[in-house]
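Mods, move this if it's the wrong board.
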Amino acid sequence: MTSNHANETNKTTLIVGASRGLGHAMTAEFLGCGWNVIGTVRGSDRSQLHDLADAHPSRVEIEQLDVTEPEQIAALRDRLAEKQIDILFVNAGTANTNQDETIAEVSTDAFIRVMVTNALSPMRVVEGLQDCVTPAGLIGVMSSGQGSISNNTNGGHEVYRGSKAALNQYMRSYAARHANDPRALVLMAPGWIRTGLGGPDAPFGMEETVPQIVSTLLAQQGKPGLRYLDREGREVPW
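Not the wrong board. C-alpha coordinates:
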Protein backbone atom coordinates (compact mmCIF):
# COMPACT_ATOMS: atom_id res chain seq x y z
CA MET A 1 0.00 0.00 0.00
CA THR A 2 1.29 3.44 -0.89
CA SER A 3 -0.32 6.86 -0.91
CA ASN A 4 0.16 9.82 -3.18
CA HIS A 5 1.89 11.80 -0.44
CA ALA A 6 5.63 12.30 -0.70
CA ASN A 7 7.77 10.71 1.96
CA GLU A 8 7.76 12.70 5.19
CA THR A 9 10.79 11.42 7.05
CA ASN A 10 11.43 12.07 10.73
CA LYS A 11 7.74 12.19 11.54
CA THR A 12 6.15 9.72 13.94
CA THR A 13 2.63 8.41 14.34
CA LEU A 14 1.34 6.53 17.36
CA ILE A 15 -1.34 4.04 16.32
CA VAL A 16 -3.29 2.63 19.24
CA GLY A 17 -4.56 -0.81 18.25
CA ALA A 18 -2.05 -1.77 15.54
CA SER A 19 -1.69 -5.52 15.97
CA ARG A 20 -4.00 -6.51 13.09
CA GLY A 21 -6.73 -5.28 10.76
CA LEU A 22 -6.95 -1.60 9.94
CA GLY A 23 -4.36 -0.61 12.54
CA HIS A 24 -1.78 -2.96 11.10
CA ALA A 25 -2.56 -1.87 7.55
CA MET A 26 -2.32 1.78 8.54
CA THR A 27 1.09 1.09 10.07
CA ALA A 28 2.31 -0.37 6.78
CA GLU A 29 0.87 2.60 4.87
CA PHE A 30 2.53 5.17 7.12
CA LEU A 31 5.82 3.32 6.72
CA GLY A 32 5.38 3.57 2.97
CA CYS A 33 5.01 7.32 3.37
CA GLY A 34 8.32 7.53 5.18
CA TRP A 35 6.92 7.85 8.69
CA ASN A 36 8.10 6.12 11.84
CA VAL A 37 5.41 4.25 13.76
CA ILE A 38 4.81 3.42 17.39
CA GLY A 39 2.10 0.77 17.47
CA THR A 40 0.33 -0.65 20.49
CA VAL A 41 -0.75 -4.23 21.03
CA ARG A 42 -2.81 -5.80 23.79
CA GLY A 43 -1.04 -8.59 25.59
CA SER A 44 2.25 -10.26 24.81
CA ASP A 45 1.32 -12.57 21.93
CA ARG A 46 3.13 -12.14 18.64
CA SER A 47 1.10 -10.22 16.05
CA GLN A 48 1.31 -8.95 12.48
CA LEU A 49 2.80 -5.77 13.89
CA HIS A 50 5.81 -7.76 15.10
CA ASP A 51 6.44 -8.84 11.51
CA LEU A 52 6.53 -5.19 10.43
CA ALA A 53 8.86 -4.38 13.32
CA ASP A 54 11.22 -7.17 12.22
CA ALA A 55 11.19 -5.80 8.67
CA HIS A 56 11.70 -2.18 9.81
CA PRO A 57 13.62 -2.46 13.09
CA SER A 58 14.61 1.20 13.27
CA ARG A 59 11.21 2.59 12.29
CA VAL A 60 8.62 0.51 14.17
CA GLU A 61 8.34 0.42 17.95
CA ILE A 62 5.86 -1.78 19.78
CA GLU A 63 4.19 -0.79 23.05
CA GLN A 64 1.74 -2.83 25.10
CA LEU A 65 -1.57 -1.19 25.95
CA ASP A 66 -5.04 -2.35 26.94
CA VAL A 67 -7.11 0.80 26.38
CA THR A 68 -9.65 -0.30 28.99
CA GLU A 69 -7.01 -0.11 31.74
CA PRO A 70 -6.39 3.55 32.76
CA GLU A 71 -3.19 2.70 34.60
CA GLN A 72 -1.73 1.28 31.39
CA ILE A 73 -2.52 4.54 29.57
CA ALA A 74 -0.71 6.48 32.29
CA ALA A 75 2.27 4.13 32.12
CA LEU A 76 2.48 4.53 28.35
CA ARG A 77 2.39 8.30 28.77
CA ASP A 78 5.39 8.06 31.07
CA ARG A 79 7.29 5.85 28.61
CA LEU A 80 6.61 8.28 25.77
CA ALA A 81 7.62 11.37 27.74
CA GLU A 82 10.69 12.01 25.55
CA LYS A 83 8.97 11.17 22.26
CA GLN A 84 7.60 13.64 19.75
CA ILE A 85 4.34 12.37 18.23
CA ASP A 86 3.04 14.08 15.09
CA ILE A 87 -0.14 11.99 14.73
CA LEU A 88 -1.95 10.10 17.47
CA PHE A 89 -4.57 7.77 16.02
CA VAL A 90 -6.79 5.63 18.25
CA ASN A 91 -8.00 2.62 16.30
CA ALA A 92 -9.12 0.21 19.03
CA GLY A 93 -12.77 -0.86 18.89
CA THR A 94 -15.24 -3.72 19.20
CA ALA A 95 -18.90 -4.73 18.67
CA ASN A 96 -21.47 -6.90 20.39
CA THR A 97 -21.57 -10.49 19.18
CA ASN A 98 -25.12 -10.31 17.81
CA GLN A 99 -25.38 -6.94 16.12
CA ASP A 100 -28.98 -7.61 15.12
CA GLU A 101 -30.19 -7.39 18.72
CA THR A 102 -31.91 -4.16 19.71
CA ILE A 103 -30.74 -1.90 22.49
CA ALA A 104 -33.46 -3.39 24.72
CA GLU A 105 -32.29 -6.94 24.00
CA VAL A 106 -28.55 -6.57 24.57
CA SER A 107 -27.22 -7.79 27.88
CA THR A 108 -25.96 -5.19 30.32
CA ASP A 109 -22.49 -6.77 30.28
CA ALA A 110 -22.27 -6.66 26.47
CA PHE A 111 -23.49 -3.06 26.41
CA ILE A 112 -20.93 -1.99 28.98
CA ARG A 113 -18.13 -3.78 27.13
CA VAL A 114 -18.90 -2.07 23.82
CA MET A 115 -19.39 1.38 25.34
CA VAL A 116 -16.25 1.19 27.46
CA THR A 117 -14.13 0.00 24.54
CA ASN A 118 -15.58 2.25 21.81
CA ALA A 119 -16.47 5.47 23.64
CA LEU A 120 -14.90 5.77 27.09
CA SER A 121 -11.49 4.20 26.47
CA PRO A 122 -10.59 6.15 23.29
CA MET A 123 -11.28 9.41 25.13
CA ARG A 124 -9.14 8.30 28.04
CA VAL A 125 -6.35 7.62 25.55
CA VAL A 126 -6.80 11.02 23.92
CA GLU A 127 -6.85 12.82 27.26
CA GLY A 128 -3.96 10.76 28.61
CA LEU A 129 -1.62 11.07 25.62
CA GLN A 130 -2.55 14.50 24.24
CA ASP A 131 0.56 16.13 25.69
CA CYS A 132 2.73 13.81 23.59
CA VAL A 133 1.35 15.29 20.36
CA THR A 134 3.15 18.26 18.86
CA PRO A 135 1.34 21.64 18.62
CA ALA A 136 1.20 21.22 14.84
CA GLY A 137 0.10 17.61 15.11
CA LEU A 138 -3.13 15.68 14.70
CA ILE A 139 -5.28 13.62 17.05
CA GLY A 140 -7.54 11.14 15.28
CA VAL A 141 -10.02 8.52 16.43
CA MET A 142 -11.61 5.72 14.43
CA SER A 143 -15.33 6.44 14.38
CA SER A 144 -17.87 5.10 11.90
CA GLY A 145 -20.49 6.38 9.52
CA GLN A 146 -22.89 4.46 11.74
CA GLY A 147 -22.20 7.03 14.43
CA SER A 148 -24.03 9.63 12.35
CA ILE A 149 -27.45 10.39 13.84
CA SER A 150 -28.57 12.25 10.71
CA ASN A 151 -27.74 9.31 8.46
CA ASN A 152 -29.47 6.69 10.61
CA THR A 153 -32.55 6.07 8.47
CA ASN A 154 -32.51 2.26 8.49
CA GLY A 155 -31.66 1.40 12.10
CA GLY A 156 -29.78 -1.81 12.87
CA HIS A 157 -26.47 -2.36 14.66
CA GLU A 158 -27.96 -0.35 17.51
CA VAL A 159 -25.37 -0.97 20.20
CA TYR A 160 -22.43 -0.30 17.89
CA ARG A 161 -24.14 2.78 16.41
CA GLY A 162 -24.79 4.16 19.86
CA SER A 163 -21.19 3.66 20.97
CA LYS A 164 -19.84 5.53 17.96
CA ALA A 165 -22.40 8.32 18.32
CA ALA A 166 -21.30 8.65 21.95
CA LEU A 167 -17.66 8.75 20.87
CA ASN A 168 -18.46 11.53 18.39
CA GLN A 169 -20.22 13.53 21.11
CA TYR A 170 -17.33 13.12 23.52
CA MET A 171 -14.83 14.23 20.88
CA ARG A 172 -17.02 17.25 20.19
CA SER A 173 -16.94 18.10 23.88
CA TYR A 174 -13.17 17.63 23.88
CA ALA A 175 -12.85 20.00 20.91
CA ALA A 176 -15.01 22.59 22.66
CA ARG A 177 -12.81 22.42 25.75
CA HIS A 178 -9.73 22.88 23.55
CA ALA A 179 -11.12 25.51 21.21
CA ASN A 180 -7.78 27.33 20.96
CA ASP A 181 -5.71 24.19 20.38
CA PRO A 182 -3.82 24.46 17.06
CA ARG A 183 -3.90 20.70 16.48
CA ALA A 184 -6.19 19.02 13.99
CA LEU A 185 -8.85 16.68 15.39
CA VAL A 186 -10.38 14.00 13.17
CA LEU A 187 -13.18 11.49 13.63
CA MET A 188 -12.60 9.00 10.82
CA ALA A 189 -15.51 7.11 9.23
CA PRO A 190 -13.67 4.53 7.12
CA GLY A 191 -16.66 2.80 5.56
CA TRP A 192 -17.58 -0.90 5.59
CA ILE A 193 -14.32 -2.74 5.11
CA ARG A 194 -13.45 -6.44 5.13
CA THR A 195 -11.79 -6.83 8.53
CA GLY A 196 -12.36 -9.03 11.55
CA LEU A 197 -14.94 -6.50 12.74
CA GLY A 198 -16.41 -5.66 9.32
CA GLY A 199 -16.75 -9.28 8.26
CA PRO A 200 -16.29 -11.00 4.88
CA ASP A 201 -19.35 -9.45 3.22
CA ALA A 202 -18.08 -5.88 3.36
CA PRO A 203 -17.78 -4.32 -0.12
CA PHE A 204 -14.29 -2.86 0.27
CA GLY A 205 -10.87 -4.32 1.07
CA MET A 206 -8.05 -2.76 3.03
CA GLU A 207 -5.87 -2.51 -0.09
CA GLU A 208 -8.12 0.16 -1.59
CA THR A 209 -9.31 1.92 1.56
CA VAL A 210 -6.35 2.24 3.91
CA PRO A 211 -4.31 4.45 1.54
CA GLN A 212 -7.33 6.77 1.40
CA ILE A 213 -7.64 6.81 5.20
CA VAL A 214 -3.98 7.70 5.66
CA SER A 215 -4.00 10.23 2.82
CA THR A 216 -6.98 12.01 4.39
CA LEU A 217 -5.29 12.13 7.78
CA LEU A 218 -2.10 13.54 6.26
CA ALA A 219 -4.11 16.18 4.42
CA GLN A 220 -5.70 17.36 7.68
CA GLN A 221 -2.36 18.28 9.24
CA GLY A 222 -2.19 21.97 10.03
CA LYS A 223 -5.99 22.41 10.07
CA PRO A 224 -7.11 23.17 13.64
CA GLY A 225 -10.51 22.07 14.89
CA LEU A 226 -12.63 18.92 14.79
CA ARG A 227 -13.82 17.30 11.58
CA TYR A 228 -15.94 14.17 11.08
CA LEU A 229 -14.71 12.78 7.76
CA ASP A 230 -15.01 9.72 5.57
CA ARG A 231 -11.92 8.12 4.10
CA GLU A 232 -12.07 10.35 1.02
CA GLY A 233 -12.01 13.48 3.15
CA ARG A 234 -15.71 14.32 2.81
CA GLU A 235 -17.65 15.71 5.78
CA VAL A 236 -20.01 13.22 7.43
CA PRO A 237 -23.28 14.64 8.86
CA TRP A 238 -23.34 14.55 12.63
